[in-house]
Write a structure and sequence with these properties.
The complex is a heterodimer of chains A (166) and B (265).
Chain A: H1 2-27, E1 32-40, E2 45-52, E3 56-64, E4 70-75, H2 77-86, E5 93-98, E6 100-105, E7 111-119, E8 125-134, H3 138-165
Antiparallel strand pairs in A: 1-8, 2-7, 3-6, 3-8, 4-5, 4-7
Chain B: H1 2-9, H2 12-23, H3 26-40, E1 48-49, H4 57-77, H5 80-101, H6 103-109, H7 114-144, H8 146-149, H9 154-182, H10 185-205, H11 217-227, H12 238-262
Helix pairs in contact in B: 2-7, 3-7, 4-9, 4-11, 5-7, 5-9, 5-10, 7-9, 9-10, 9-11, 9-12, 11-12
The chains are: A alpha+beta (166), B mainly alpha (265).
Chain lengths: 166, 265
């Protein structure tokens, strides 16, 4: 039984190392960029649902013509529910009456987010949006750390107990 | 008493247990798990949807879940190369080494049915890596986007599993044959790897639809047929089914008759 626990601990450590290193050094090693171009008519809005992991997002929005003014809202899953069920706009980040923006947002969890870009001016606005994902997924690394500690405990404790008995 | 012991030893479950203990030692298990994790942990998914009116969260997540299932299916296609090395190593360690070291001669001298011995090898060497790969894929699917993973339909998961199994079955059939006929561990490993990689590379240069006969194009056709239907229709999936399922079944039937009737150590 003890040898089986030690073997399971060894396999858990191997799995932990693979998860942490593969995710950190392959998937998250370089920033990824998503771009989009679209027009928003006067006094109307554009909705975009996105799916984010927990990497930091830098959002850059350029608007032309420069005289156009937009409102930018970012809603999390709770906000999406509120908007659909009650028509209430509750954002986790917002900017109003701007001609562009450049902000950084750290998603609190993995899941769906909604971008609302409202054109508050009376002419069509051409929007250019870039979302740059950078940094590490700390939730996966934390999970790996917990798994790793469990693996090391399974690997070492039966050996220590065996020594004490002797 | 002796007869009872012999009867127990000849049971399929007992043979499977032997084979499991002999082949899947801790270092081998660690290598298979590490390979599967390395292949699947890189799976990620950046989805976007621009409807004209607000949608319910459930509706949005359902749509993204379908895309997440497709992404996982693409990761499964890319597992071909890892599967080649793993199955080639496992069959050469299990079968060729046993034949070359004389262990198979000892086994066959016991009152064990050859058919049961053959079946135990096939079950263990094919199903254990398949289950490890599937469990790893499910684990990664749940780890990266847990809320989407819960919304993927069981049929989609079953389909991905079936296609991975079909791809692995072809790899297994070729590796098993090489190990059975070449009988030298290193040579059978090399023969399996070279043959399978050559088949995959050659199939890329074949004209449509013959290139669907083999992985990885054939695997992609099968996955695409279920999840996206970009360009493949019902008639296209016959080619991968012939090349990756019917041909390996024929190969394994030939191997079965060879092992049970002609095989001598």
């Amino acid at each position: 039984m003890k040898s089986k626990i030690i073997k399971a601990g060894y396999l858990t450590i191997v799995a932990t190392i693979m998860i942490a290193f593969t995710r950190a050094f392959i998937t998250d090693s370089c920033p990824s960029v998503e771009t989009g171009h679209f027009n928003v008519g006067s006094n109307s809005q554009n909705l975009e649902y996105t799916l984010w992991d927990t990497r930091t997002r830098r959002v850059v929005i350029d608007v032309s013509p420069a005289t156009a003014r937009i409102n930018v809202y970012l809603l999390d899953e709770e906000g999406i529910n509120l908007l659909y069920d009650e028509g209430c706009l509750q954002s986790v980040f917002s900017l109003e009456d701007v001609d562009g923006c450049d902000f950084t947002y750290q998603p609190q969890y993995r899941g769906a987010y909604l971008f609302i870009i409202q054109n508050s001016s009376n002419r069509t606005a051409s929007i250019s949006k870039r979302i740059i994902s950078q940094g590490l997924e700390w939730d996966i690394l934390q999970f790996s750390a917990v798994l790793g500690i469990a693996g090391v405990a399974m690997f070492l404790l039966p050996r220590l107990l065996r020594r004490e008995k002797r | 008493m002796h007869r009872k012991a012999v009867k127990t030893a000849g049971r399929l479950s007992r043979l499977v247990h032997w084979e499991l203990e002999k082949t899947f030692t801790v270092p081998m298990l660690a290598i298979v798990i590490a390979a599967a994790l390395y292949d699947f942990v890189t799976a990620s998914y950046g989805a976007g949807s621009s409807p004209t009116a607000p949608q319910s969260l459930a509706n949005v997540l359902d749509k993204f879940a379908r895309g997440w299932a497709f992404n996982l299916s693409v990761e499964a296609v890319s597992s071909f190369m890892f599967s080649v090395f793993i199955f080639a190593a496992l069959t050469s360690i299990s079968l060729s080494r046993d034949i070359s070291s004389g262990y198979m001669r000892v086994l066959l001298s016991y009152p064990i049915r050859r058919a049961k011995l053959f079946m135990s090898r096939v079950l263990v060497l094919l199903l254990v890596p398949f289950l490890i790969f599937m469990c790893t894929l499910m684990f990664v699917g749940a780890l990266v986007f847990p809320s989407l993973f819960l919304r993927i339909s069981v049929l989609d998961i079953g389909y991905i599993a079936a296609v991975i199994f079909v791809q692995m079955f072809l790899i297994f059939a070729v590796s098993f044959s090489a190990s059975l006929y070449i009988r030298q561990p290193v040579m059978s490993f090399l023969a399996s790897v070279v043959t399978l990689i050559s088949l995959e590379q050659t199939s890329n240069h074949l004209p449509v639809p013959y290139n669907y006969l083999l992985p990885t194009e054939g695997t992609f056709v099968l996955m695409d047929y279920r999840f996206y239907r970009f360009q493949y229709g019902p008639t296209d999936i016959f080619m991968p089914l012939i090349g990756m399922l019917i041909v390996p079944i024929i190969i394994m039937i030939i191997n079965f008759f060879y092992f049970t009737r002609r095989f001598q150590t």
